[in-house]
Amino acid sequence: MRIIKLGFGAVLACSAALAVQAEELGVMQAGVGYFPEISYAKPGDTIVFANFSGKVITIVGRDGAWVLGPLANGTQTPVTLTAEMGTDYFTAYGSCATSTECSEPNPAIAYGTVEGASEVAAISFDPPPVHSQ
């Protein structure tokens, strides 16, 4: 019986270790784009988006799959990544991007599209590239 208890304890310890492996990454919007432009992450990680653009902005995933904001200048907000999230995102400006009272139900009309945006970035679920010297 004691072996079974130790085995179950080992499984719990491994599960806890896997749960702790989620990372928190930062992305900054500075008014001219995002830094970093590509965030290498995995589902379960959290990205904290910080707005230092000098304006109120909304960050929008491709096709309006997710929307963060409006974010006042100097504020930040976290988002936990899922495998189903669109990975391209952009900065939306304009009335819907700066108001919590936007009545437009279509994100492409309310915020525009990633193809037409000037400030675009991405999340990649691929391993980061290895740089050699």
Would you summarize the structure shown here?
By secondary structure, the chain is of the alpha+beta class. It has three helices and nine strands, in the order αββββββββααβ. The chain starts with a helix and ends in a 9-residue tail after the last strand.
Give the tags.
133 residues, 5-stranded mixed beta sheet, 4-stranded mixed beta sheet, 3 helices, globular, disordered N terminus
User: What gross morphology would you assign?
Assistant: globular
Which percent bin holds the helix content?
A: 10-25%
Uncertain residue ranges: 1-17
Largest sheet, in brief, is: 5 strands, mixed
In order across it, which strands form the biggest sheet? Answer: 3-9-8-5-6
Secondary structural class: alpha+beta
> Span between N and C termini?
55 Å
Q: Figure out the total of helices.
A: 3
Q: Tell me what portion of residues adopts beta-strand conformation.
A: 25-35%
Q: SSE order in H/E notation?
A: HEEEEEEEEHHE
For the CA atoms, what is the radius of gyration? Answer: 19 Å
Q: Total number of β-strand segments?
A: 9
Q: State mean pLDDT (0 to 100 scale).
A: 79
Describe this structure as you would to a colleague.
The protein has 133 residues and is α+β, with helices and mostly antiparallel strands. It has helices at residues 2-20, 95-98, 107-111, and strands at 24-29, 34-35, 38-40, 46-51, 57-61, 67-71, 76-80, 88-92, 120-124. It has a 5-stranded mixed beta sheet. Strands 2-1-4-7 form a 4-stranded mixed beta sheet, with no helix packed on it. The radius of gyration is 19 Å and the shape is globular. The termini are far apart.
